[in-house]
């Protein structure tokens, strides 16, 4: 029976999944009785705050590795507010001392569940650089203080929650859990690890953006359903046991959209098999990515020792109305008052920015964001974005009238989608824009141009800049968008990511050729001149990416020199869990194509510290600290003509090199590393 206090129109409470099936929208369920307590100014982090709200306990406690900032860009805050809107009392335990279970009991026993996340970043990426050095700061901690979260935070936090209250269900989620949901290669330990579900001993794993999953799980627990029986929620994974309904016993015809449409199950190679066999690892990675479209994805099953991991198909994307409702929730848009005057760098960076969409159909193999948010773009309405601009103006301390970003994973994918929903639901392409833009993709940037214009005309707004990276090959389909962007929304510099100049590594990245960047650069400079502005493109490049040889890096360095680019910050490839490029790095195989035991495509990999440092040095050819290393490499490559003071030379000479003394240099491997 619907909640009488719910003002949502009846027509908006249901969405059509197929001509014969309906499912409830995100906020259509009857609210839990505790909604009578009202909305909290901020979600409580202490018993004293709970008492002020009149709570005797929390229904759900969220544990996060980030400082608690009540802002929609912080995952714990967003999920917490969504659950609060559903009537649940939600508490936050932020960056607890993980060395004992004491800090995990500070809010008492939650009535229904613990929700555990490492935060907005994978904890290993947060703690270590691509060179495996410990980072000196943490942008998600007060005053950037390091050391406030453990390694593999999801596993540690979940185990401590279990120690504190053994009978309370533990649900893990966020990007760390999402990207480690199956057996995966872990760069920091240099081995294949089990699904984080088994290491953490959690009851359920939520992957992807978790609003749908968490809301359904919380409501079903509140109705008294045991967590072991919650096996049919899309976007979740769990361990099969003797008490869990077997695959054949699960009802696949439910109208709620909880099961795969066809009920089919694909068994991945087991954890033991992928840990021992690189070809099977690459094969499993390929299957996982091909089964990522919510419209046609099938259930995945993977054996771990004597248990099976069951991975349901991805959750259905949020509609515009649902996404608007999420971002309209009453965020204070500030750090929790307990932090006082502490500065949280990640908050300072995004406090005046606005997310207008989710997802990315670019399919870049080095990026794990697509594996988390999905390839289907979920966009907000202009009205919702304008309401948030007003909220920024009213709530953000020190607001100067500048909106620092209107974007998302990519700046210019707002409202872009397949022209035919039926084709979209059946498609298994890994990218909509590689090797070329799909003819079924609607590349109309008109709605985004209109949104930019409305945003810069909003009350109290002096300027709107675009901080998200622009997908330049898509932008070329709309010169009017490039003109709007360059004339009004560039704050002196614009980030663009060609990533490389050579086709070998670009093909392994699923990125367009460098000619697309050159074409975009011509448009950028022309419109900048017409606007009478001095503006610059900041190209981003990746060093040591799978598929890049030493000669490829040399050609990229020469391209940068010819075009007068001197990269200051160089990104070295970081093999994050579950990314396709990580599978290439680990196996030396190309999962973008069908795998073969013999005769399959080999991928060259720079995996040693010396090789990776040398690849990075080519992009920093102008740094004197790299000259000795580059001289040796150029001699090794048979290019002594690039050592000198001439216009076409890459590095200056030294006396030892000019006498023909060739420093020792290990030859970089041209194939994958040994196993």
> How would you classify the helix and strand content by structural class?
alpha/beta
For the termini, the CA-CA separation is 59 Å
Side by side, the strands of the main sheet go 4-3-5-6-9-10-13-12-11
Radius of gyration: 26 Å
- CATH 4th-level superfamily of the largest domain: Response regulator
DSSP helix fraction: 25-40%
* Percentage of β-strand residues: 5-15%
Query: What is the overall number of helices?
Result: 24
What composes the largest sheet? 9 strands, mixed
CATH topology of the largest domain: Rossmann fold
Domain module tally: 3
Based on the coordinates given, report the CATH architecture of the largest domain: 3-Layer(aba) Sandwich
Low-confidence stretches: 1-22, 247-262, 657-675
CATH class group of the largest domain: Alpha Beta
Could you explain how this protein is built, in words?
By secondary structure, the chain is α/β, with parallel strands linked by helices. The chain has three domains: 10-232, Rossmann fold (3-Layer(aba) Sandwich), CATH 3.40.50.2300; 361-543, no CATH class; 553-675, no CATH class. Helix content is 31%, strand content 13%. The protein is built from 24 helices and 24 strands. Strands 4-3-5-6-9-10-13-12-11 form a nine-stranded mixed beta sheet, with helices on both faces. A three-stranded parallel beta sheet has the order 22-23-24. A hairpin with a 2-residue loop joins strand 12 (299-304) and strand 13 (307-311). Helix 9 (278-290) packs antiparallel against helix 21 (580-587), helix 15 (446-456) packs parallel to helix 17 and helix 17 (479-488) crosses helix 19 (514-530). It is globular. The protein starts with 13 loop residues before the first strand and ends in a 17-residue tail after the last helix.
